């Protein structure tokens, strides 16, 4: 289980997170929703070590992550799929996947077959440069790269952003498969309400850097939840 307990995060004098607490359980999909600019990506930067927190604690499987560099969090089992995908455009698909070897011991440095089972298009494009792929294919590559690290928790920042509907369905099936077959925890930041409603076991809604609603996915249809999600 990932536990985020009462964290604050600042960018200079500006406070982005205020007393945020969430849990992401193994074998469950936890979705964080909210309008633009409410602190969702800041929460993931805190979890993955991209930005230091100024108060509170973050722990995974009972071990504190506070102060650990991002690469040490990757070694601890935190896999990250950033917003905007951030694949290496001049590297081939195969080379992009192999960048996931960094936190692995030598014996584990291979690309798991399940990546190609989930995203068969990647296997047909191993020699193609990442920058030549479509946005949806790049998103599949970014998820595949995170899977190469053998994560115990997969952290995804808006994986449906700018993606065509057919690829969104493929990504949804992949996320559901990973939850059901591996038992990993999945922490998903998303704005696409229907995507979360279909996938999530538990949801949090953020507003102005705080958690303002939490509950099972069915609660997304309540007036209280919709009030925080409508523009």
TrEMBL record:
Leader sequence residues: none
Keyword ATP-binding: yes
Database matches in CDD domains: ABC_TM1139_LivF_branched
Keywords in alphabetical order: Amino-acid transport, ATP-binding, Nucleotide-binding, Transport
Record-level Gene Ontology MF annotations: ATP binding; ATP hydrolysis activity; branched-chain amino acid transmembrane transporter activity
One family name in Pfam for this protein: ABC_tran
Keyword field contains Nucleotide-binding: yes
SMART domains: AAA
Gene3D superfamilies: P-loop containing nucleotide triphosphate hydrolases (3.40.50.300)
Domain of life, source organism: Bacteria
Bilayer-spanning residue ranges: none
Domain ABC transporter: 2-231
Example of a GO biological process term: L-amino acid transport
Entry's family note: Belongs to the ABC transporter superfamily.
Protein name, entry field: Urea ABC transporter ATP-binding subunit UrtE
């Amino acid at each position: 289980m990932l536990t985020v307990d009462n964290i604050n995060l600042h960018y200079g004098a500006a406070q982005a997170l205020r007393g945020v607490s969430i849990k992401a359980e193994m074998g469950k999909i936890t979705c964080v929703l909210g309008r633009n600019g409410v602190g969702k990506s800041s929460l993931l930067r805190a979890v993955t070590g991209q930005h230091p927190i100024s108060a509170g604690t973050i722990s995974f499987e009972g071990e504190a992550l506070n102060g650990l560099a991002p690469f040490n969090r990757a070694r601890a089992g935190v896999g990250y799929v950033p917003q905007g995908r951030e694949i290496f455009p001049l590297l081939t698909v195969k080379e992009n996947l192999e960048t996931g070897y960094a936190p692995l011991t030598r014996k584990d440095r291979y690309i798991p077959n399940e990546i190609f089972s989930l995203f068969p298009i990647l296997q047909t494009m191993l020699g193609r440069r990442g920058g030549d792929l479509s946005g949806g294919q790049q998103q599949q590559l970014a998820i595949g790269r995170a899977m190469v690290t053998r994560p115990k928790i997969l952290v995804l920042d808006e994986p449906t952003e700018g993606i065509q509907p057919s690829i969104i369905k493929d990504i949804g099936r992949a996320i559901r498969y990973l939850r059901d077959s591996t038992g990993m925890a999945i922490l998903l930041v998303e704005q696409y309400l229907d995507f979360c409603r279909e996938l999530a076991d538990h949801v949090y809604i953020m507003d102005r850097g705080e958690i303002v609603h939490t509950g099972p996915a069915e609660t997304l249809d309540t007036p209280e939840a919709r009030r925080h999600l409508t523009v």
